[in-house]
Structures are given as C-alpha cells and as structure tokens.
Amino acid sequence: MEHSASNTNPVSSQTKKFEPGTHGAVHELSGFDEVNDSPIEQVRLTVPITDDPTLPCLTFRTWVLGLISCAVLAFLNQFFGYRQNAIYISSVSAQIVVLPIGKLMAAYLPVKSVRVPTTKWSFSLNPGPFNLKEHVLITIFANSGSNSVYAVGIITIVKAFYHRQLHPVAAMLLTQTTQLLGYGWAGVFRKFLVDSPYMWWPSNLVQVSLFRALHDDEVRPKGGLTRLQFFIIVLISSFSYYIVPNYLFPSITALSFVCWIWKDSVTAQQIGSGLHGLGIGSFALDWSTVVGFLGSPLATPGFAIINILVGYILVVYMVIPISYWTNLFGAKRFPIFSSDVFDVDGGRYNVSIVLNETTFQFNHSGYESYSKTNLSIFFAFSYGLSFATLAATVSHVALFHGRTILEQTKASFQHKLGDVHTRLMKKNYDAVPQWWFYSLLILVIGLTMLTCEGFGKQLQLPYWGVLLAISLALVFTLPIGVITATTNQQPGLNVITELIIGYMYPGKPLANVSFKTYGYISMTQAIMFLSDFKLGHYMKIPPKSMFVVQVIK
Predict the structure, then answer these.
(1) Is the pLDDT at 5 greater than 50, yes or no?
(2) Do residues 525 and 177 touch, judged by C-beta distance below 8 A?
(3) Which pTM was predicted?
(4) For the chain, what is the mean pLDDT?
(5) How far is 553 from 545, CA to CA, in rounded Å?
(6) Rounded Cα gap, residues 320 and 80, in angstroms
(7) H or E element, residue 355
(8) pLDDT tens digits, residue range 527-541?
(9) Among candidates 431, 448, 446, which has minimal Cα distance to 522?
C-alpha cells in the first residue's frame, strides 16, 4: 500500500493532483494544509487526506449503474443462497465491473440536460468524466444487493416446511421493515462508530485500497508493478483458477486423507470429514471454502485471527471430542456434527407431531407423548458459546473502549472534531439532520406494527414483541458495532433472540422467527449502514448523498 504519511513526519507527503470538476473547470483538491493525525496506522497508510467537493455524486450514471448492480447481486445471492454450499458474490464484483461501463457512458452519452416533466428539476446524462465518488456510491448500492434478505427465510420455511401461505403484502412488508428498521437508530451512533477515528472498520480499508488502485495515477517503479497492474494480474489468475474447483474438480473443496485411508470407519469420518466431521487432516484448494464462514482473512486484523484460531482449536479439537466420546448427555446417539434436530432415538425430529396444523401452534400433548428435542454436541456448544460471546462483547467494550466512548460523548456535545477525515467532512459537507433518522424510524416502526398486528396476525408476534426486539437490537448495536469496527468480526443476536421470545411467548413458531429477525437483522442492518457511512467518510462522499442511496437501495 502507498504511504500517505511518513513515520517521522505526520504531514501528508502525497503528490498534489488536480481533477476536473462539475463543469469541466479544474479545481484544486482540499486537504493539503491538513495533518494526517489518524491514530490508526493502517488508516494513515491507506486513506487519502484530500478531497474535491466539486465532483458530482448522485449522477444519472450513479442511479442507473447502482440500481442495476443492486438488483443483479440481490437476485444472484438470494438464488445461490439456497445451495448447500452457498455461493456469495460480493460487491467487489460490481466495483470492478462498473468502472469500464461508467467510463464508456462518460465517453458516449450526450452532455445535454434532461428536464423532468412538470417540475423545475433537470439533470445531465453526462456531467463529465466518471469519477471516484460516483464509483463509491454505485458500490454502496451493490453492497446492499450483495446481502440476501434474511426475512425471506421466514417466507421460505412457512411455504416449504409448514406448507402454509403468508399474505403477499405482509410478506413484502416483512422483508422491507426488517431491512430498514436499523437505519433509523444508526444515526444515533454515528458519533461513536463513524466520526471516531478509533473505529476504523478494517474491511473498508480493502475497498479504499481498491478504489485508489483503480483511480489513482501511479508511476510504475522500475522492476515493479503499480497497484492496478498487480490487481489485474491477481484478478485474472484467481478467475482462471476458480474454474478448477467450481467446474472441473469440485471435490477439492474438501479433501481428507483420514477419510481416504479409513474409508469404512465411522470414527475416521467423524474425525476427518471436512463437511460432516471435525475436519482434522482435511484441507481445501478452494478459496470459497476459506472465506465461507468468517469472510476473507485478508480484511481481518492479525490479533483477531489468532484469537479465533485459539478458540477454534480449544472447542473443536479438545472440548467437542472429549464431550462426544465420553458420551456427555448421551451425545453418541446423534451425529457429532449436524444442525438438524433429533428425537430421543437419534432419528430426525418429526415436527408435524408437535405442531397443530389448524392453529399453527405448539401441540404440548403431542410433544409429551413423542420426544424432547435433541441437538448434536457441536450444535449445542455453538448455541451455548453464542451466549458467552454476547456477554464477552459487552464486558470487552466496557473495559477496553468504555473510556473512549465517554470521551467521544463529551466531545460530541462540545463540538470537537476528530481526525483529519472528520475535519474534512465537517468542513466540506453538511451532516445528515437527526430528524431524518428519527422520521424514518417512526415510519418503519409503524409499518412493522401493521405487519405483525394486521393481516390476521399471521406472524403471531404481538406489538410488545416488536418493541422488545427493537429495544434489544438498540442496546446491542453499540457494543457489537465497536467489535465489528475494530476486529471485522460481528457477533449475532440470532440465538439469544430465539431464547427470549421462546421463554416469554412459547408455542408460536412464526412469532419466534419474526422476533429473531426483527431483533437480529435490524441490528445487523444498522451496523452495515454505519459501515457504509464510514466508507463514505473515508472517500469524502457527501453524507446526504450517502443517506439517500442507502435508504433507496
């Protein structure tokens, strides 16, 4: 990565550049009188401290390419999400593809203005060269499409497993409200998770580096490569290689010598299988296997990777084998690794026996006469440790980041500015008014109440369940946001939400999954909103443009 500050002098040493503005004039970039005082070294080395506030952002190209990218990625990821080994297409794909398309549009579209009928508004089909800020906003559009809609899972299980139908309007409102709910309170935490220089969001630095590689003018060093040349070589090589695991030899996604040597041994399969066992001695030659669960390790700090590795070894290679082969709680009656639910004899649990198909509620007498639910030892530990993770998240943030949060709160009331990036944003752009966020929150809460209380109460979740889910997500947004912004790892509320509503409102399967979705996904969407806001913060995108793009997408 290119240095934007030396180790001895904090003043920026970047080469001054000039870029065309909105009307073809040449404007000097702002920020050369600023000191690169970001406290995070990775940010100092990656994020530029210059800005050209005259560059157009919400252009015709932005809307067309952004909406198409969002729709295409949303369809592909939702479609491929039903595979057993799901394929995930990230926004980086759109980030790469739209660049040549944007430049072609800038080269061939007419410059003339188009007037919106019956209004005084007009826009240009071609406001000038395709610029970095347009590219960033299109990528943020695509980033929304790259994440499948979690609430679609509720619609799927109702249709596929419970053989019932949801009202189409209720289903549509369910998907929309769960996606938008977290945006409302995300504005409350901007001071802590966006403006704070200590919340550096490691995954965003990867995209910042790629944007600079695609847009910065670099001189090729003698005997070396520019960042763009290196990126193109890696892109072509990885794309060419992926044909091997995806089409020619899919088996290399999970190779296990233990299973090959002792192919008739059940114990060997439990120990060595990378798909249905502990994976000891198993390896893969497929990058999608590496990034399939925790995401790309290239975007995660080293200390977080080591932390995860130590925990993984302790749990998977020590605790689970000991628990299973000592038959703890009858663990040997069930597979060592499975996400299914089993009856007392180790067979698949017959849900129809414990579910009243007429009222769609829990059949207590059927449950008593049939069997208690049982989980595999691996799945049981996964559930148990998820509770420990949330408790550790709150205590870690309180102990290691509590003072910083308090200082940030005091600074926000005193209108003190943070590092160079915050100062540039405050200097060049107006902030998004808080009432925009509050208005959105009130509107979406109202639609959520309508979704749950209306349509014959198909979702089974009462109004107090909605308010409880919102409160739970609101409380955990800040501590989980801090963990995500510093380690690139995001604990989830999916397990604790199931427990809470299952205890408070038992026997309602749809109420359980609806509460889980509103509690878990609204927090996740808030954090994704803040992450995109931080990317815009680094790339000096007007906050109001960011808000409009994120709400529309």
Answers:
(1) no
(2) no
(3) 0.84
(4) 86
(5) 12
(6) 31
(7) strand 355-356
(8) 999 999 999 999 999
(9) 448
